[in-house]
Design a protein that fits this description.
- By secondary structure, the chain is an alpha+beta fold.
- It folds into 2 domains: 106 residues, Immunoglobulins (Immunoglobulin-like, Sandwich); 76 residues, Immunoglobulins (Immunoglobulin-like, Sandwich).
- The chain is built from 3 helices and 16 strands.
- Strand 13 and strand 14 form a beta hairpin.
- Helix 2 packs antiparallel against helix 3.
- Bound molecules: 2-acetamido-2-deoxy-beta-D-glucopyranose (8 copies).
- One 2-acetamido-2-deoxy-beta-D-glucopyranose binds next to strand 1.
- InterPro entries: CD2/SLAM_rcpt (IPR015631), Ig-like_dom (IPR007110), Ig-like_dom_sf (IPR036179), Ig-like_fold (IPR013783), Ig_sub (IPR003599), Ig_V-set (IPR013106).
């Protein structure tokens, strides 16, 4: 009796050949290798999920069925010669363990388990200007790189190489720019994947320009208009001085026409 139980256990252990790990990206396709011997001619292929063995795709008596479960409807491809299963348009819910049961025409039987991990592509990071300041040496700028992805590492690339800059672990860069166009790239990375965004910056006012004098800013036309306004204000005062009135009126008209 004891020997018989041991024998059954040994068969079951030998049954499960391997546990394969497969990574796929959200929305992409992934192929789950059946692990079957390529020389086998398969007569039964059963792909299932969950501990209660819910069939999702099967091949039996020459009939293929890949629409057994609504959550995978239209997304499965079963290769009846290799037994491999392709899942298209991966969703988060596809991230789980899959079981394949293969029987060949010689009645060889193997069961494989495949773990599918659904990964998400990294999103482009965002570069924001935190602060900038003009000094004698040039413009100091502080940029912050952010991303919606969790636990990524940030790194920066600055061109030309001669630009001085420092960075910290939190994705902040500070650099001194002059009038040369500078290309700044933030790279977020996680495992094998990277995503990047760039900005181009330069310093426009390297030295603060001397403030223009009030007279220059006012301009000739403004000056004339001011004189004209003064003359108009003087009209009521000179009004009852009789003869000078007409002379002043003439000159005020002259001023206005010249300021147009
Ligand atoms: C394969 O699935 C069918 C149901 O579609 C089931 O009747 C059959 O027993 C399964 N075969 C194996 C080897 O799991
Ligand atoms: C099998 O398990 C899944 C999840 O645990 C459940 O949604 C499904 O209804 C179960 N199927 C049967 C036939 O019990
Ligand atoms: C898979 O995605 C493509 C484009 O992303 C879409 O056209 C197609 O209808 C989707 N198929 C299924 C079965 O969801
Ligand atoms: C099925 O798998 C075999 C062996 O891997 C391969 O040669 C063949 O091209 C595949 N068929 C399809 C339709 O992908
Ligand atoms: C397969 O996935 C399950 C659930 O995600 C996990 O618990 C298990 O450790 C994985 N197996 C291997 C061999 O990585
Ligand atoms: C700007 O600075 C870089 C390095 O700091 C230098 O190589 C370059 O010549 C400077 N350009 C100008 C226009 O000053
Ligand atoms: C981030 O960088 C550190 C040190 O270079 C490394 O140990 C860690 O694995 C990296 N993390 C990610 C998510 O790439
Ligand atoms: C990283 O890339 C190498 C080679 O391109 C690949 O073998 C490995 O599986 C990848 N690792 C991850 C976690 O994607």
């Amino acid at each position: 009796m004891r020997g018989r139980i041991l024998f059954i256990l040994l068969i079951q252990v030998a049954h499960v050949q391997s546990l394969e790990e497969v990574n796929g990206y959200l929305g992409d396709s992934v192929t789950l290798p059946s692990g079957g011997n390529p020389s086998w001619k398969l007569s039964v292929i059963n792909w299932s999920i969950f501990p209660n063995v819910t069939f999702i795709a099967s091949y039996r008596n020459g009939n293929k069925n890949t629409d057994r479960l609504s959550r995978y409807k239209g997304r499965l491809d079963l290769n009846t010669s290799s037994g491999d299963l392709t899942i298209r348009n991966l969703t988060r819910d596809d991230d789980m363990e899959y079981t394949v049961d293969l029987i060949d025409t010689e009645r060889n039987n193997i069961v494989n388990k495949i773990n599918v991990t659904v990964l998400k592509h990294l999103q482009k990071p965002t570069i924001n200007t935190i602060s900038s300041k003009s000094t004698e040496e040039g413009c100091w700028i502080w940029l912050r790189c952010t991303t919606a992805d969790e636990s990524v590492n940030f790194s920066w690339e600055v061109e030309p190489d001669s630009v001085l800059y420092t960075t910290n672990r939190d994705g902040v860069l500070s650099a001194i720019l002059n009038s040369t166009q500078t290309h700044i790239t933030c790279i977020s990375s996680k495992n094998n994947e990277t995503a990047q965004s760039s900005v181009s910056q330069k310093c426009y006012d390297r030295k603060p320009q001397p403030q223009p004098l009030p007279r220059d800013r006012f301009g000739l036309h403004g000056f004339i208009a001011l004189v004209a306004a003064l003359i108009i204000m003087l009209i009521p005062i000179t009004n009852w001085k009789g003869e000078r009135k007409t002379l002043l009126k003439k000159s005020s008209l002259l001023c206005f026409s010249s300021s147009k």
